[in-house]
Each structure stands twice: as structure tokens, then as C-alpha cells.
Amino acid sequence: MSGYVIIGNSTAGLAGAQALRQHDPCAKITVISGEPHLPYSRVLLTHLIAGHVVRDQLDLTGPEFMDRLGITLLSGSRAVNVELNLKEVLLDSGEKLQYKSLLVAAGSRPVFPDGFSGENPAITGLRTIDDAIKICRHVVPGAKIIVVGGGPVGVKLACALREAGTMPEIIVSSPNLLSQVSDDEAARMVQAMLTSRGIKIRTGVDVVALHKNSDGSPLLVLNNGLEIDCSLIVFCKGVRPNTDMFSGLIPQGGGLKVDWHMRTLFPDVFAAGDVAETYEITRHEYCLAATWPHAVQQGRLAGMNMAGHVAAYGGSLFRNAMEIFGLPFVSMGIIRVPSRENWDVRIMHRDKCYRKLVYRDGNLVGALLVGNVAEAGLLQAEIRRAASENFY
Amino acid sequence: MMLSIKVDPEKCDGCGRCTAACSLGRMLRAVAPECESGEKKYTVTELAQPLLWLTGNKEYRIDLCRHCEKPVCVDVCVAGAIKPEENSITVQIQFEKCVGCWSCVMECPFGAIRLFDGSAVKCDGCPGYVAPLCAHFCPTGALQADCRSTGNAIRRRRERASVPGRINNEAYSGKRA
């Protein structure tokens, strides 16, 4: 008997499984999980490193959850191939699973530049609990840990490492931190905050190679010729969706484009979370929006649509919220204005509060709030309202 | 999740009892013995940040939680700290789980959540009382609590649209008059 198969047991996969069970009480549901752990919150990994939470608090469900919902969990096995014609998923154990419909929520993995490999004990990304434990092992007071990449993950990780007592250093190839989600002014505020807390930031440089000192400790070489001694290098230079099981069918490293019902181009295959390329409502194009809120929402919608309960997605909106040593930071939609024509920007900058609202043709399409973020929710509602009214 | 507090600004005379009752009530609950294990206590400064504020001359600011049927804050909470109470009509924040990531603040379309002392706070519907204190102490009936455990989504949606928010969304819209 073939039932529903879900690849991935994290945020999106779990939301999908719950929705499937809710709308189809008797169906057979199988979840394939590459990690042997219970599902956990990846966003809390930096908080685990900082010591705000303990390991148990990361778990999203209890051990009895899957049994209670009557879901078969194949823990520690990966899907290596999907036979679209036979409707079969091939696992790394050689086992084959028939599906009636398939949800791909396999997540993503960190990108390592050429010449650097995650196999090296001195190199890691930050995506899984194993990565976080690897980082925690290097957390000793005064240890020098290099964070490569100045995106939200890199900044949050650097803050966490500093709170844990180490001396982190951020290396970012663009001239400013947070270049994707912030403008120069707000980035300067964040940068000043980080520097004042003892985090060293090098902008405009990139890593070239990793050598070993005579005592075996890693030595990182930058493209300006500088050599830095460190104990660990963490790459936070973005992620790539885990879509290898569709190799040959989609471009290498690409996502699965989904429609408003989370349906991919392939028959009876749905996608949600980091692997799904969804429509972004301010940029008007299909993008990978790899954040928690998107994963939950897409997972649930995919589950509902798989069970025949038609529901439409409202579109993704690039957004990020974080706290940098007590300084709240929220960024939504388009922050950098490409041209002056048709675009309007309103900036308010007072002491430690910065607010930038971006309008396109008179409609709010972006907001950046630093310091006081109380109205962020209202702004997001306005962005979504304007986008739905001007949909084309 | 059906607790809703309805506001009729026309009836408000600006006495400020709702504000005081809200702040005091939350303070009292925070220092109550059974809450002490939570280790987070409100201080008097919280009095300066009430969740609602009305004056008689139609100026008001209402950041009240709507205790939505499909709460977005619950979906986006990365720590599992916001949960709809079982067999109850409210959505509650567990302070000891909250890590202060601002996700819910960014998500709530009513601006009902803010951060205080490192964790998210919002209207908790005054658990332990027969009615939310703000509505209970309102002498003119400008605030009215509607506690029912069932309801239909359409009625709720209509109501939600009619409840005035803190800031008129038009203030953010770029269209000039």
C-alpha cells in the first residue's frame, strides 16, 4: 500500500506531517529523516552556543509524537533518488518506498568555497545540531573562532560566540555586514555595536586557503595576504538546497519551483521549506526564502494540498528579525533601492533608532527597523496588503 | 482561542482605568507565588508600557492580542514558547522558554507583541479572573470582553477588521492625499 512520503523531519516536514494527519486521519505517512535526532529548532542553535538554552529545549516534539500521530519514521536514512515514473523513493540503504504523493522538505546545507571542505575538523558550517556541538567543543575562553560571512546567521553566531567568552572574528567579502538585508547606515550601527563588544570585523576581504601551523593548528590565508591563527572556521556564506535526489532534472544546487499550492513541476511531488522556490511578493520573482516562518507555512500548506484540501500560499516575503546584544533589528522586503525613478525612501534616524521605509510606485515594499521594532508587524501587514492589491 | 476585547472609542471618556488595571493585573500575576518559578517578574517600569491606552478625545492605542484562531505568532515561534492554551480561549507565552528573537513581534499584524526584559509580552487575557481586567473596570462600556469557546471564522474575520488598531495602516501607505 502506498501512502504519503515526506523527505525531511525538520520544521517544514513536521508541519507537513501534522497537516496531513489532520486532513487525512487514516493515511499511511512515512517520514524520512537524515538525522538520527528528534526534530529540533535550528534557529536556536546560536542560542545553544551562547548558553541561553539547553539541548532539551531545542526539541520541537517529544519522542512519542510520531507514534501518537501514527507516522512511520525512518530515522538516519537519506533519500538518494526519486523515480518519478515508478513513484518510488530510493533510500541510501537500498530500500525503495512507494508514494502516492511526496513532500520534499529536505532542507539545505551550508555552502563552502572552493578549497574548503566540511570534512576538515577545523571547518564547519552551522546548520545542524552536530555542527553546533562541533563549535561548542571549540568554545573556551579566549579561543579565536573565525566566522566567514556577514549575513544574519554569521552575525548571530558571532554574538553567541562572544557571549560564550571566545574572541570571534567576522570576515565578510562585501564592504558591509548584512549586505543582503540592510542598508549601509544600519549596517554601520550593527558594526559599531559588535565592535564595541569586542568582535573584530574585517570587511572587503575573502578567504583563500587554509594551511597548518607547525603545531597543527589551522592558519587561514586571506586574499590580502594576511594570515590568521585560529582554532575553528565557520562558514555562514549562505545555503544550498538539498535537491540531489532530483539530479539531472533540475540545475545543480537549484531549488524546486513550486506553485501557489506547493506543487512542483513533477507529478504528485510537493516541496516546502528551504528546497522550495516560492514567489516573493516584493521582488516579483521566484526565490529561495530559507527562513523559519516560510518553512512552517509552506509545510502546512503542502500537507493540506496533498490531502486534497486546497489552500493557497500568500507568497514569501524576505524578512529577518534578530537581536544584536540588545539591539533589535528587523528587515523586510526590499531595502536597497535600485534606482530613483518610481522609488521613494523615508528615513528616520534618531539616536539609536533607525527606521527606513521603502516605497515603489507609492506602495510599501520594504522596511528596516533598528532599535525600536514595535511596529514591525503592522508594517509587514501593510506590505502584504499593498502586494495583494497590486498583484500582477 | 476566542477571547476578544472589543473597543468602542465613542464611549470612552479617557479615565485610564483600563490602562492601570492592565498594568497592575499583570504585575500582580507576575509576583503571585505560583508564577515565581517562572523567575521573570514585572517591575514597576512595566506600568509605563500598558498594552492599551485610551483617552476621551478619540485618541487611542490598542495593542491587544486578538487570541487568533490561527495564530501566526505560534507558527513563527522558534522556541515553541507561544502556545494556544488547551481547553482555553487564549494564546499564552511561556516566558521561561522565550529567547527574545523578535520573530513574533515582526509577524503579528496587530502589533500586539512587544519585548520586555528579554521575553515577549502580550495580553494574556487575565487568567484566573472572570473577565479581562481592562474590560471589567471600564465604567462606560467602551471596552467589552467577549469570551466564547466556539465561533465561526467568518464572524471573527469581520470583527477583526472592525477592531481599530494602534496606527491606521494608511499612515504607512505611500499614497498621498
Unreliable stretches of chain B, pLDDT < 50, 5 or more residues? Answer: 33-49, 151-171, 173-177
Largest sheet of chain A: 7 strands, mixed
Note the gap between the termini of chain B. Answer: 39 Å
Q: Helix content range of the residues of chain A, please?
A: 10-25%
Strand sequence of the main sheet of chain B, in spatial order?
1-8
Q: What value does the Rg of chain A take, in angstroms?
A: 22 Å
Shape summary of chain B: globular
Shape of chain A: globular
For the biggest sheet of chain B, the summary is: 2 strands, antiparallel
**H and E string of chain B:** EHEEHEEHEEHEH
Structural class of chain A: alpha/beta
Q: Total number of helical segments of chain B?
A: 5
Q: Tell me what portion of residues of chain A adopts beta-strand conformation.
A: 25-35%
| Helix coverage percent of chain B | 10-25%
Mean pLDDT of chain B: 69
Cα distance spanning the termini of chain A: 43 Å
* Quaternary structure type: heterodimer
Structure, explained:
The complex is a heterodimer of chains A (392) and B (177). With 392 residues, chain A is α/β, with parallel strands linked by helices. Chain A contains eight helices and 25 strands. Chain A has helices at residues 11-23, 45-50, 65-68, 129-137, 152-163, 184-196, 292-306, 376-389, and strands at 3-7, 29-33, 71-75, 79-83, 88-91, 96-104, 108-110, 123-124, 145-148, 169-172, 200-203, 207-212, 218-222, 227-229, 232-235, 239-241, 256-257, 269-271, 276-280, 285-288, 319-324, 327-333, 343-350, 353-360, 363-370. In chain B, the strands form four sheets. In chain B, strands 1-8 form a two-stranded antiparallel sheet. In chain B, strands 2-3 form a two-stranded antiparallel ribbon. Chain B has a two-stranded antiparallel ribbon with strand order 4-5. Mean pLDDT of chain B is 69; it is low at 33-49, 151-171 and 173-177. Chain B has helices spanning 17-31, 72-76, 103-107, 133-136, 153-162; strands at 4-7, 52-54, 60-62, 82-84, 91-93, 114-116, 119-121, 143-146. Chain B is of the alpha+beta class. Chain B is built from five helices and eight strands. Classes of the chains: A alpha/beta (392), B alpha+beta (177).
